[in-house]
Every structure is written in structure tokens, then in C-alpha cells.
Amino acid sequence: MPKLSFSKLLIVPFLFVSAGLIAQDSNNNVKEVEALVIGKNPQRIVTVQKADSLSDDSQKTAASGIVKKQPIRKDSAVIFPGSIEVTDIRDNVKFHIIPASDEVIEQRIRGLENQMPMPYNEHVKKYVDYFLYKRPNFVKQMLERKEFYFPVFEKYLAKHNIPDEMKYLALLESGLNPNAVSRAKAVGMWQFMSYTGKEYGLKINDYMDERRHVEKSTDASFRYLTKLYSWFDDWELALASYNTGPGRIRRAIRKSGKTDYWALHNYIHPDTRAYVPQWEALNYLMNYSAEHGIYPDYAKTLYPMETENLLLDGPLNLVTFAQLNYLDFETLQLLNPHLLKHELPGYAKNVEIKIPTLNYVYFENNRECVLDSACVLSSPSTDVIALEDDKGHYHFEYKDIKHYYSVRSGDYLGKIAERYGVGVSDLKRWNGLRSNTIMKGQRLAYYKRESIKVYDAYHETKKETVVAKAEPKNTKPATETRSNVKVTGEKNTALESTSSAPAERPFHYEKKTVVRYHSIRNGENLTTIARKYGTSVKDLMKLNNIASANKIMRGQRLKYETTVSEKVYDKVASEEDGNTFIVYTVQSGDTLWNISQRHGLTISEIKKINGMTSNSIHVGQKIKLKG
Fold first, then answer.
1. How far is 340 from 317, CA to CA, in rounded Å?
2. Where is the region Disordered (predicted)?
3. Which of 2, 45, 90, 227 is deepest in the core (most CB within 10 A)?
4. Prediction pTM value
5. 388-455 falls under which CATH superfamily?
């Protein structure tokens, strides 16, 4: 369940301001969502020249002199009569806000009603005033971002038959920031916890987090909202339960005997009471910000762009990929916030990458060259080639593994949670607990993040071919005739063999499983022996006919299997066949594209000659090329 993320609230004193009237509410405090922490901009005064309407009351108040008019200087823009200068409490940016009477605001809100009721009451008024007079810069920033993200939201709202006004939920959850992370580790535009994201099909690993993927997380969020609506048959209750959880809303319904949201309002958890009023206030301000003198900075406004989706495999340097496609890397990041790093590792498969259509046309025309040149990672050690055993290539992923704990005498939830580094609320949710009461012997489930070895479908060739032939003693100078045999050294300099002795026949290495023996020493057990030789206790017991892992003794001789490399000689085409080869040693910065261009071959030919299944190469690798 997407948690109390950015909607956890801070208590701040609230000052209600309207034209000619400053009323301070000392009994009620305003709770502020954490989502409003969006960063700081340089101070500047935003002024307006006109607004669509101003109530008669506010005009009379301005004329009476209760609200002082700002002096008009020659070097400043005209300030709307009756506007009030305010300073954003987070960013210290100054605004001139045009007030409106409660009657005008109520009439405007009534006109916004679609499928969800939008009453204008004291709770909604509190947050309309709060965003206008305390957080106008947040409203401005949302205006600058909504054009980019709202078309995506509207697409999935229509797909799932959800009211269009539900798109304003993302303003509360994350401030329209796909990279937002809450204190509870909820992530993304819609603030999914990792277990909920995985439940709704979002992939999370060391290089990608689809909770940040704008389209996929939006689709998952609206599927979750649809599920909540099916339980309550009420969009306001679904909205509240998105924030606090359906369990709390059900308990409020049972306690009050009511099913209307506003009748339930005082029974809902205090942290959630502000959620629906804030949502309604932002709905209003996204539609009527100009009437209050708040405008976006059009130089900072994000606009939609036409894009294409690619499915690419690693290894891939994303910075190089962007440069080769004449694409600004910041734009690539904006379109792909789900990519956590600047590189995709060698084991990454079918990763979705979105690029602008104009750049996509260039990419399609130069696909082979771009992908080959962008496959060189800045840190070769992260390449999958460095991680290989007898079962194949592998990588490590961090996963939440389920464990169990049996409650002991003196235990309580806080103590257990601290021991395993989890939250009490998490323990209760994982085990379906409604209270903190636990009993001795009770079995509690908890999740722990662990590093797991994952074998990949991707495999490099396991052959390394070295070809060498002896040169005739009367070899002519290279300028007169091309030698049939060349061996490329570490610096890729063609060296001619002058030895009359025949060179070693071409060969390759093949892996072979063999049996070895180990004599048990004092203090050893099957587990330590298995780890030492990269096998398992089960395999050791089976190979040595051991019935019990505890029944071994010092000096006992154990068999274990291991993999060794064996040299196998090849059959190589003879000189008479006209097929001679060069052995090239890959250097830093090399790609198959660069090598193919230097040697007059195609990438496909090189891969075929060497039995390669991908464009990945590594420093020191020897590649056979046609001479």
C-alpha cells in the first residue's frame, strides 16, 4: 500500500488573510504536506497587470485604505490594486496575491465538480488560504510541471475509468517529482513502497526502479485506486484510503456507522484529515491560479514531447548513448527517471528507454554503430564477464527475503523491530496484527534485504582461440607482399615471425568437470568445505554417500567436483585455402565497430568468426580476424 509518504504533516501556525481582513486562528493549526519540499529558487517578486475578477468587497476594502497599495516605480511592473504581498514560507520568494471572497471561491469550486463532490467548507478554505498565502511558490512550480505529466495521467485515467480530477493526487504525493523519496522509503510520483510496487508488477533492481517510471507507476497507481474504489464505492474514501490505508478507513466506518467522507472526517486518523481538503484546494488552484496572480515561469515550464520507446540490453553507457544520438543527457534523464545509474550492466535485458522521436530517427539509421560504441562501460569491473562460474555468468541483486522469528519471553514488537532493523508498523502489516500484543512462541514474519546471486540468460563464448603460424625464412618485405600470418601484440602492432621452428597449432580452452579430494581438518564442517570449493553441502553428501552432515571426522577424505580449463587443439584452415587470420588483443576504448572499421570487416563477420553472441568485449580479450 502506498504509505503516508509526502502527505505526512507538519504543524505550522496559520494566518488567514483576505482583502482588508487579517484574521488569526489561534485554535486551529495547519498541517503541511512534506511533498511541498521542492527546492529553492532565487527570490523574485511576481507581479500581475490584471485579473479576471475581484469581488466588490475587496475593491471597497482596497479603496478604504485598509490594504496599502504598493507604490508604482518606473522600473517595476504595475501591481494589481488590492493585491497582497506575501513571502513563501519555504522558499522566501515574494508574490503579490489577488484575494477573492469566499462566495467567489465557492462558486468557482462548484463549477469544477465532476464525479467527485467538492464542498467549500472550513477545512477546504484553510488549505486554499494556506497554498495562496504560505506556499504560492509550490503552486507556481506545479503549474510549470503539469503540462508535461498531466497528459500521461489523463491517458491512464481514461483507461481505468477514473475521474479526471484524480490526477491532482500526484501533487500531494510527490509534488510531480518522479524521483521523490519519502522518509518511509516510498518512491516515485505515486509513492510506492517496494513491496507494493513489486505486487503491482514494477521492477526494482540495482540499476532500475520502475516506481520512478512515469507511465508504469501511473498505471499501477490507478489500478490500485480502482481496487480501493471497488471496496468503498466512493472516490473520496478511495482517495483517503490511498493515503492512510483501507484498514483505517474501514475502522472509521465501523466506529462511526457512517459512509460519507465528510461525516467520517473527525473519525479518520489525524494525519489523513488534511488529505482530501488539500487535494480539493490544489484542484481549485490549478484551475484558478491566474485569478489569484500566480503564473508559471514559462522559461522553466516543461512541455510534452513526441517520443519513441526502445528495448535495449546492457552493457550500455547511457551518457555515451545520448551523445552519439545528439541528445542532451538531462533530457534522457527527464524521459527515463527509472534508470538509476549512468550505465546499464552487462546482465541488463530488455530495458525500456524513451528518446525523442527526432533522435530516434537518427538512432535507427545508425543503430549498430551507436550500440557498439556505447557498450564500453567506464568501470570494466562491473561487466558481467568478471562474474562467472561453472554454471555460467551471474550478477548480484538485492532482494527482500522473508524470514521468521519465534517470540521469546520478554520480547515486544519494538524490541524485535530494532533487532532486525525494521519498523513496528511493518511487522504488524506483514503479520496482520491489529495491536502490539504478541505471545511467547508466536511466529512472526519479517523481511530482510539480502544479496542474491542471479544467473543470467546472457553468455559469452567460452572459447578463446589463439592462432599462430611460422613465416617462411625468405619472407619478402611487407611493402612488396602481405604476409599471410600476423600476430597482434598487446599494443596491437603487427609482428612478423622469423623463427624457422613451426609455431604451436591453434587451440582453445574448454571447461571440464573433474573430481578432487580434500582431507578434513580440525574445526572444519561440510558448510565451510562447500564454501571453500564453490559447491553445496547437499552435493558433498551425495558424492561421498554421507547420511548426516554431522557425522564426519578429522582426516576423512572427501571427494568434491571442480571445473578446470583444458587445452584443446583446433583444426584451422590452411594457407592453401586462402583463409589466414590475425589475432587481435582488445585494448582500452576498443569496440567491435572500431575494430571492424580498421580491419575492413563487418561486426556480423567478426561475431561469426569468433562465435560471439553479443557486441560485448573486454580489455585483453583475443579476437580472431581474417587476414
1. 12
2. 468-503
3. 2
4. 0.55
5. LysM domain (3.10.350.10)
